[in-house]
Amino acid sequence: MGYVERAHDIIENPASKENLQEEKEEINELYRQFFSEKISRVELSTQLSSVEERTPESKIELPWIGPLYGLLRKIGIPQEKVKEVVVEEKEHYISAQTEGIQINGVCLMFTQDHVTGTKYVQPFLLFNIPEGLSDQETRNKLKRFFLAPEDPSPDDLAKIP
In angstroms, how far is the first alpha carbon of the chain from the final one? Predict the structure, then answer.
């Protein structure tokens, strides 16, 4: 099954928006703890893996950022919104390359607000936290990565205390 078909299948039965919010908040809290020096890079990496594996049925992983625009357009996202999303993710991608952060692809999480019926797509880059660096060097690189877009998203800002 191709990405577009899988996306349409997930859109028919997406995860609840509340589940995505809980997962995003857990992830953001882990980053805040790391930036506040309450947990180490190793603890951050281990705990992130545990959280991110919880809802695989509502996610699509693309091997790289290239197909993101086409997929979002093919599933009906308005062109202006797609451009906005792709520009932000591209700014993160360029920052990752500059910072030596290995990008493993793009993940799209599909959710639905079960009260209003509104469906959402949340893209984010998949990356490895750099190894061989001190925790402080890692904090500096990740901070520049999260704040790379000209207008960082509320989700990016929520990761940094």
Answer: 41
Ordered alpha helix ranges (H), the chain: 3-12, 17-35, 41-52, 68-74, 79-99, 135-146, 154-158
Other CB atoms within 10 A of residue 38 CB: 12
Place of tokens 């995505």: 20
Q: How many of the other CB atoms lie within 10 Å of CB of 131?
A: 10
Q: What are phi and psi of 104, to 5 degrees?
A: -105, -5
pTM: 0.86
**Beta pairing class for 119-127 and 103-112:** antiparallel
Instruction: Output the DSSP codes for 44-81.
Output: HHHHHHHHHTS-GGGEEEESSSTTHHHHHHHTT--HHH
Q: Show me where the domains of the chain are located.
A: 3-158
**pLDDT tens digit sequence for 48-89:** 988 877 766 778 889 988 899 999 999 888 899 889 989 999
Q: Amino acid identity, residue 25? A: E
